[in-house]
Amino acid sequence: MRVSISSKCVGCGVCSAINPEVFEISINFAVVNPFYITGNEESCIDAAIECPVKAIDIRE
Ligand code: SF4
């Protein structure tokens, strides 16, 4: 699984609240830690669903 953040991100922190292992907020923008995606796939998908501006892109 690949997870990326688009420029639509507003740094709200919803993704890091759902999945703090993978998503971190840095200077009002979410960054992805790819090393923790494996094993956290479900909460990556949950974060993408809950992102208010649909800035999280998930690909297999
Ligand atoms: S939930 Fe979406 S808008 Fe909010 S910080 Fe995460 S990627 Fe950005």
What structural keywords apply?
single chain; 60 residues; alpha+beta; Alpha-Beta Plaits; two-stranded antiparallel ribbon; 4 strands; binds iron/sulfur cluster
Give the SSE map.
Layout: E1 2-5, H1 14-18, E2 23-25, E3 30-32, H2 41-50, E4 56-59
Antiparallel strand pairs: 1-4, 2-3
Iron/sulfur cluster binds at residues 5, 9-15, 23, 25, 30, 51-53, 55-56.
Brief rundown of the structure:
This protein has 60 residues and is α+β, with helices and mostly antiparallel strands. It is built from two helices and four strands.
User: What percentage of amino acids are in beta strands?
Assistant: 15-25%
Number of helices, counting only DSSP H or I runs of 4 residues or more: 2
Q: Determine the CATH topology.
A: Alpha-Beta Plaits
Sheet of most strands: 2 strands, antiparallel
Major beta sheet, strand line-up: 1-4
Number of domains in the coordinates? Answer: 1
* Helix percentage range: 25-40%
SSE order, one letter for each helix or strand = EHEEHE
Q: What is Rg?
A: 10 Å
Ligand types: iron/sulfur cluster
Mean pLDDT: 97
Query: What is the general shape?
Result: globular
- CATH architecture label name: 2-Layer Sandwich
Strands, count:
4
CATH top level class name = Alpha Beta
Terminal residue distance: 4 Å
Structural class: alpha+beta
Ranges where pLDDT stays below 50 over 5 or more residues in a row are none
